[in-house]
């Protein structure tokens, strides 16, 4: 669980009278959920190749950006897509260094993506990307993606062909979603802050749209995997449910 921030309640009391801060958070969550729905319905009337199915898009349903911390806080290995699908400059790489920085207002995620990666230049240029959460079924290909560079390919998008990855147009960013039944989720992000890039290669991202595979929800068909830092990985397994003890953080539970 992240550090406590200004405005968070000291103690969760009876729910009949919510604190102003809690009420505000509840309203924000509701707003995000409504926005997610509105965004999808708006897309559905568009004639572009952007997302248009109000229920499922390439097998994904919309997921509130204010809840993406649940996808990132477990620390899964992620794919990062950059560039532009429209002009075939899209790239994809693997990361293990990332963190949730803020739940909401706005949600923020930090990723470490270094200047030695071809993806760095694309992120710097377009200031947007997609974070895809792969299921362990993709572990080998995800590691292979992280052991080669677009700089070594004939085309910027060479890795997509090489690894037979499905690139789907995103709703709000130029970089594509990673399609396929073994992808747990996709989070469309824009760069919020670059202050720590030169010193730490740390990009602060703001999720603006998110998609969840309903057949691969974490713990309900989907299993994330986590890098131990040496080429070995641990896979989601047993769930330890301590919700009852999370007395100060009830607003983050269903
Ligand atoms: C398991 C794993 C984790 C990785 N984590 C990171 C990371 O957190 N940050 C980073 O910059 N590169 C990381 N890499 C390396 C990049 O994925 C690798 O440099 C990639 O090939 C860059 O592709 P590009 O040059 O096409 O952008 C990781 C690789 C693997 C296999």
UniProtKB/TrEMBL annotation:
Keywords: Flavoprotein. SMART domains: Flavin_Reduct. The keyword Endoplasmic reticulum does not apply. The keyword Calcium does not apply. Residues 70-232 form the Flavin reductase like domain. GO terms for molecular function: FMN binding. Residues 9-18 have a biased composition (Polar residues). Residues 39-49 have a biased composition (Low complexity). Residues 1-57 are annotated as: Disordered. It holds the Pfam family Flavin_Reduct. Its cofactor is FMN. Gene3D superfamilies: Electron Transport, Fmn-binding Protein, Chain A. Belongs to the flavoredoxin family. This is Flavin reductase like domain-containing protein. The lineage of its organism: Eukaryota, Fungi, Dikarya, Ascomycota, Pezizomycotina.
